[in-house]
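Margin note from the TA: students keep mixing up input and output lines. Inputs are the sequences; the output is the structure of the whole complex. Example:
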Amino acid sequence: VLKDLKDGGFRGVLESQEHVPVVLEWVLNVGRLNEPTTFKSSLLLNNLRVRGIDYHEFAQRRHFREVAPAGWHQDIVDPNRGTERKPIDIGRLTGMRDFVMRVAQEWNIEIESEEGLF
Amino acid sequence: LTNFGISTVEAEDCLDALQSFYVKTVEAKSVKNRLCITLPLLNADGFQISIGLEQISERSAMLTDLGETLSFLECRGIATDHDSVKNLIDKQLNVFEIACRGRELTKLVNLPIEGLDIHLFGEALSGLTHLLFRHELIQAPNVHVFENVRQSLEQMKLRYVIGADASVKGLISKSIQVDFLVEAKKRVAIKTVQRRGRIHEYMEQWGYRWIDAREANPSLVRAMIYDPDNQEWDENSRAIGQRHCEIFRPYFESELIQADLSRLAA
């Protein structure tokens, strides 16, 4: 994950513990390695985005109407209800490892991590 | 409103309304070593686009999207390094003279800054996000067919391999990849039909493969499990399956699949 992120992005298939017959993919992206606020992540269910976490410097306006304050947001996407963008507290990030672990925790993704790997 | 209570539109009113909208919409603030600016433009999800501006010398500055645009596409399942998408992105970047550094899109501009430069950069980013609609979703494979077969094999306590190990030699093909290779009294090669939609060409290919596999392994039991609800099976495609497979059944006939496996392999 770290190596791919250093190249700018990671996209990998997750294994469902419930053996649910869907393809779950985890996408992580980095704009600038030294700026955690440029890190982004999303969760794809059969190639459709269902969750997203990213940072925005300004209050978020959809069709120019404010829907969320500035800062870290989580998008909750429901095909029937559209995208809901909510603020999320992900604490102070020091780097990629923090971000990966925090997103994994938020979305119940179990990852094997070794100290020093990140 | 006129004396008769009818609303009329004048050019000046329109101009005022638009200018007031732009004033309310456009914001700029200083964050660390850059200016962050919101633009009167939307991305493909309907959210307002914002960019960064970093001064790099007395006379030049760099506009940046901080990786927002390509990440926007990738986080929505688009492979931006795929040839067809990459060509479209490159074309747009060339037109607007934008450079790509990793995931970050940037453009060098002269100072003092021109509003036009900022707006055109934003237009380019907005346009790129709309590539989302040129993207064809990959149809989800019928993973449940695979899962159903796996459960049947587990219930029967049969020894099997999956992945790269699940392959058989053909007389012509060196290796024919299947989904399960069951090691029982007779070897059983099982292919689950996971693709959706039209199936005819696929079955023609598999008809050939099954003949090739059988010629190299005369005792091999060939099995194909499918999902009639999510696949377009015509008469010929079914006939190929029935002719060349000892077990050819829809995935939901688990009991019959198990009975076939007991009879032919166990």
